[in-house]
Design brief:
Length: about 250
């Protein structure tokens, strides 16, 4: 588990970016697969989620997750939900209620307003980032009374630029929006590579948030022990596990 120094200093949340270690799943899901939508044994996934819940010391509430759709839809939780929300962003001000995001190369983003005591968890692949999901969450917080100077944003482990090869149409899509987006692409040996984490970080800075922590751990690199959709695809595996990132107000 990786934690953010910025969030830890506040002493008002428990959080963690979990990799694939210390779980119960077997085979290609070895071992902390928290992907409820994967083809893994459902009982093992439940055990893994209970383990994460235990690590962040949530005594009564299960971790709230989403049916993630690479969208810009946000859900504000006012009470413990009876069923899963659909979307890619969760916000809550309920103490003791852990909220989580599942990823396998996309960027997990954890957010805290230290004054209003509100937390958010966001799933941002390139589609969500392109649709400005992180900015929409931040705008929602500001609309609810948050001040930009009180907000901390942490971009968790995701695929690095050196392993994120994209096509020409992908690049053109971003350049049509703004020519300035060219800085997030690198050309190497006639191949194009995209920097997802830096694109998101730039969005957050442009919005006016200065308290940003970026955890530079490449999920594609096997030595970091994260699940990776791209790595599994390269190995022709039929499925892949999901990493979980969780935050909870104390």
């Amino acid at each position: 588990m990786i934690i953010s120094k910025l969030l830890s200093k506040t002493a008002i949340v428990r959080h963690g970016f979990f990799n694939s270690k210390n779980g119960f799943s077997k085979g290609i899901y070895n071992s902390l697969n928290c992907g409820t939508g994967s083809s893994d044994n459902k009982n093992n996934v439940k055990k893994n989620l209970r383990y994460v819940k235990q690590i962040i010391r949530s005594k009564k509430n299960d971790i709230v997750l989403l049916y993630q759709k690479h969208s810009s839809k946000i859900c504000f939780i006012k009470k413990f939900p009876k069923k899963k929300f659909v979307g890619d962003g969760l916000i809550t001000n309920i103490k003791g209620l852990p909220i989580g995001i599942l990823t396998a190369d996309c960027a997990p983003i954890l957010i805290l307003d230290i004054k209003q005591k509100i937390v958010a968890a966001v799933h941002a692949g390139w589609r969500g980032a392109y649709k400005n999901i992180v900015i929409k969450v931040l705008k929602r917080l500001v609309k609810s009374g948050s001040s930009k100077k009180d907000i901390i944003v942490v971009i968790g482990p995701s695929i690095s630029q050196k392993n994120y090869e994209v096509g020409k149409e992908f690049k053109q899509k971003f350049l049509r929006r703004s020519k300035k987006n060219s800085i997030f692409f690198k050309l190497k040996k006639n191949k194009i590579y995209f920097d997802l984490a830096e694109f998101i970080r730039n969005q957050i800075i442009s919005f006016g948030i200065l308290k940003i922590d970026v955890i530079r751990k490449d999920t594609f690199d096997k030595k970091n022990n994260f699940f990776s959709a791209r790595r599994s695809l390269k190995k022709n595996e039929p499925d892949y596990g999901r990493n979980i990132s969780v935050i909870m107000l104390k």
